[in-house]
Amino acid sequence: MTHPIIRLVNRNITISLNPGFLIWQVIFPLVYIFVAGFAYAPLVQGIQFGEAKDLGYPAFLASGMIGFNIMNSTLVSGIIIWNDRRHGMFEQIMSGPFTRGHYIISNICTIAIVGLVSAAFIMAVGYPVFFEDAEISLVTIPIIAFGAVAGSVLFGSLASIISTRLRSSEGFNVIINTVFLFFAFVSTAFYPAEGVQEPLRTAFYLNPLTYLVDVIRAGIFGGVDAFVAVEVAVLAVLACALFVVASRLLTRLNV
Amino acid sequence: MPHADTADTCIDARHISKMYGRTSAVDDVTFSVQRGRVFGFLGPNGAGKSTTIKMLTTLVRPTSGDISILGIDAMKRPLQVRQRIGVVLQQPSYEPTLSVEKALDKYGMMWGVPGNTRRDRTESLLEEFDLEGVRSRRNEDLSIGQRRRVQVAREFMHDMDLLFLDEPTVGLDPSARRDLLDYLQNRVRATGLSIFYTTHILTEAEYLCDEIAIMNRGRLLEVDTPDALKAKLGDEKTIKIHLPSRPPNIRDLLSGMDGCRIEFGGDHRFGGGGGSHTGSHTTITIRSSESELVLLRVLGILRENRIEIEDLSAVPTSLEEIFLNMTEELRGQQGGGPDTGAGGDDDDGRRNNRRGGRRA
């Protein structure tokens, strides 16, 4: 018999893979990259990246979409907990052959898998757009993978925390949409932080998606420097902190 | 405390209590259930049934007391208990985006049931629970009754020794309800499955259960077989006499009767109980354990006063009446109002516990 965590991950992935989720994960990023990317290209001229690299807007946006899609998909996966509570499946699972530990770890594994698959998908789709500028190497691949996993855990934990605190659909949707809007658009996913006026520029760096996008972008275009190293550290600390909080809340969740 | 860990006992609950803050949901409840039996747990909304079932299924830890399930200490080894039981909770639980067929299969997978077995069981359960017509429909698109059938059917995807059913017929129509009870009965006969069944529908308990516990306000009032309960508490009969008139002195005429309880009115043609009838008919309801003697005396009084009788019937007291009498009697002793069941249908028993009830 397979391990309970694997069984729960199997179940989580099955219930996540519905048409709405796939459209959200596949169609939206494609539209962003190939419609918004090329449509805005004439307005956004070469973007300075690192010391000697000018990126076209489609390449900049496609790389930003990787982090964006990781956030997007893991927020949705984190919602599994909310859905389980809302539809009685949390209690049902807890009355079955599983512990809370199984449940928490299976959700984190699901989120990490969805995040990695999502990142790989956008990498593959966006590669034609950014391959000319890409400097992917054996050094940068682990950075990209780290960014994907840390970002997944971070946003998945955030969604889990929200899931444990809210029960009504209205409250949950308002919070998730607000969080999504802030994270998506007050970040470097769509535009560079350089040149942005204060206090918006500072707000960019209060957003974990900025760190995720910067780390992945640096991994793709080879601009890993001291500032990116700090961003890696911030991402790791935030992911760990939110994971601990999410786990504690889940452990105390009443049935 | 050591448990009566005999091969014949599947549930052994000793002095279990559950407090939520300073309010008591379950108060010092003790009972045991024999293997291969259907044990009914009856009580009105808010009686503490769901809290009890959550303690027995290890979802909630008792404040005090001991629970042994299938010979396993439920407090020390909850996972071992959960691996051998099935649970259908009172609240609906479903995967909204999965089809009925997929939901059954995935539930079996979660329990580690091999693929071939899952396929066979899915087909069999779809047929037995009359779900073939909706097998491809998503759970969120089902009616409440269909969803409930899926919820119950799903539990039979895996093997178990003991099944907990918390008001499983809520939302089912009478036909589906009877089908489910028959299915459960057959499973018990065929496999020796033990069932712990909570309900507030007395006819269900009478039809299905080998033994019945009656609970109210967190306390156990009686535990016995349906027949024994009726013999013990339902030896009285109910006599109903319909009069085509409204004799003004009828209350006075019958006021001196001993060994019985008499109510006037109660018929839909009247303005309510207690004799405040407003129509042109009267219904006299007499409850007595000496019904024949009482009836003869009442008939004598009516004949002497030339009061015409339209209709007369005498019926044994049903389990439902026993239950109502017990819970009303307890309310009377406690001087409380009607038990509104603080949690409504979502009975988590979080309400003030008033003491003074009858004990098993």
The CATH architecture classification of the domain at 9-84 and 160-232 in chain B is 3-Layer(aba) Sandwich
Radius of gyration of chain A: 18 Å
Average pLDDT for all residues of chain A: 85
* Major sheet attributes of chain A: 2 strands, antiparallel
- The count of DSSP E runs of length 2 or more, i.e. the number of strands of chain B, is 14
Low-confidence stretches of chain A: none
Helix content of chain A: over 70%
Q: Number of DSSP strands of chain A?
A: 2
Intertermini distance of chain B:
20 Å
Structural class estimated from helices and strands of chain B? alpha/beta
Mean pLDDT of chain B: 83
Question: In what order do the strands lie side by side in the largest sheet of chain B?
Answer: 6-7-8-3-9-10
Oligomer: heterodimer
Determine the CATH superfamily of the domain at 9-84 and 160-232 in chain B.
P-loop containing nucleotide triphosphate hydrolases
Read across the widest sheet of chain A, the strand sequence of neighbours is 1-2
Approximately what portion of the residues of chain A adopt beta-strand conformation? under 5%
Rg over CA atoms of chain B: 24 Å
